[in-house]
Amino acid sequence: MPLFLRNAWYVAAWDHEVTRELRAVRIIGDGVVLYRTEAGDPVALEDACPHRKLPLSMGRLVGDELECGYHGMVFDRAGSCTRIPGVKRVPPSVCVRGYPAVSRYGLVWVWMGDPRQARAEKIVDVAHWTDPAWGRNEGGSMTVDCNYLYVTDNLLDPSHVAWVHRTSFGNEDRVDEPVQTEVPIDGVVAARWLHDVEVAPFYAPLVAFDGRCDRLQHYEVRFPSHAIIRALFVPSGTGGHGRPIHEKALMMDSYNFITPVDADHSRYFWFQMRNFSPGDQRVSKVMDDAVREAFAEDRVILNAVHRGFANQATPNIDLAIDRAPLQFRRALGDLIASERPSVNAAASVS
Asked: Are residues 238 and 266 in the same domain?
């Protein structure tokens, strides 16, 4: 069975990384070349000339068209070949695969499946993106040497912060509190309230109240592999399901976009939205640095987990905390299995 969902938007790069210079990336095993037209629109093409399969990223741009660096074949932004040196009429069948690409939220997104199904409105909505009362951390990206499903496992596991992120996102208060799961149509949610706990170290300098807190951990992963982690801190005794949000609440939404490179590597993009200090670059810098350190802790764990499963000599076990990750894997597997075998063939743009 295929490992990846093709009919989905994946993050290919940050907006600022896609320029008039050719950029090679790999997404769900496909080699893709990215560039920007003279008008500023992102373009994504198969990174292989149909003649001798030289990566087109080794060629050059001529206006908005891409010229192969081996024998000068030229392709337009849709992937159609417009020129073959020495050939008067280019056969319509000579082309490379074109992928729909759009810029949104400071990122370039590429649709990897049937282009007829590509709708920009299917991209994850970022709440408060244009809200002047909310601040934003610019975020970052990193490569993780593991299968992307180990990352989605991690992003549906509120319990891991108590051990992996002791000095940042986590503490050991109420570690036995059960996690509630939901399975909406577009993913899986794992959440729990922790009552009367210490404010975790990362958030302690940021909250607008003193003393202990009630904390909501909301971990949500949407298909194919995009996570929204919502952190909510309110004064102790004021939080809980169905209760109004306290006026001094700290809220932070972490958006995490996981792009599978291949079966053994993933590209991880992120940024955070916050309900305080909009436009404060000092706060953004402090939070950015701390988040990057915490995510580096995740990378160490996930790389080791991948190696552990690759070399396992005995069966692994699952725990109660694995309910949400396993639900996500099953639902995603069903979506992958339901894709028509012709999706790859239909994905070329002529």
From this structure: yes
Kindly state whether residues 183 and 284 are assigned to the same domain.
yes
Q: Which long-range contacts (CB under 8 A, 24 or more apart) does 116-123 make?
A: 116/346, 117/7, 118/9, 122/8, 122/9, 123/9
Q: What is the number of domains present in the chain?
A: 2
The enclosing domain of 70 has a CATH number of 2.102.10.10
**Alpha-carbon distance 173 to 262, whole Å?**
38
Q: Residue 96 contacts by C-beta under 8 Å, 6 or more apart in sequence?
A: 45, 46, 48, 49, 50, 56, 75, 79, 81
Residues 66 and 129 grouped into a single domain: no
For residue 167, pLDDT over 60 is answered with: yes
Single out the residue of 313, 299, 320, 309 nearest to residue 144, CA to CA.
299
- Give me the mean pLDDT over the 162-182 stretch: 83
Residue at which a domain ends, from 87, 121, 155: 121
Q: What angle do CA 277, 169, 175 make, to 5 degrees?
A: 135
Residue type, 127: A
Instruction: Write out the two tokens for 300.
Output: 């160490």
First to last CA, the chain: 28
pLDDT tens per residue, range 126-161:
999 999 999 999 899 999 999 999 999 999 999 999
Residues 211 and 281 in one domain: yes
CATH classification at residue 267 = 3.90.380.10
Statement: residue 226 has pLDDT above 70: yes
Give the domain extent around 302: 125-312
- Regarding whether 48 and 76 lie in a shared domain, the answer is yes
Helix (H, G, I), strand (E, B), or coil: what is residue 318? coil
Query: What is the tens place of the pLDDT at every residue in 276-291?
Result: 999 999 999 999 999 9
Average pLDDT estimate for 182-210: 94
* Residue pair 249/223 in contact by the 8 Å Cβ criterion: no
